[in-house]
Predict the structure.
Amino acid sequence: VDRRQATILTYLAPAVVAHAVLFAVLTTFAGGNRLYLWWLSLSLVSFPLMGWDKFSARQGLPRVPEAVFHALSLGGGFAGTWLGMVVFRHKTTKPAFWTTVLLALALHLGVWYVLYR
């Protein structure tokens, strides 16, 4: 594993674990549509991570790799990533970010359509 991959895994692995735990809690206690709960739990993970990255940028701390946000967005956390971009005014001038978030939204709306039409 090279250094870049290790950095991505440093953030992505805990995010995936947090999502798994949160998703399990939501499906157990909240009930409802699992796809929506999947989106919600990943968004609840990606949103504060956007805030952390903005804080890290201001403080000169190690940054969260963009690949982590792309993976979380494409996995279903597009709403949290988008909300983080707006609330924290973070990565709003990066076309790749907007493109990935919009692509993820389109992808997941397509999944929703296929599953629930």
About this structure: The CA atoms of residues 3 and 67 lie 14 Å apart. The longest helix spans residues 3-30. The mean pLDDT is 94. The helical segments are 3-30, 34-59, 66-87, 95-116.
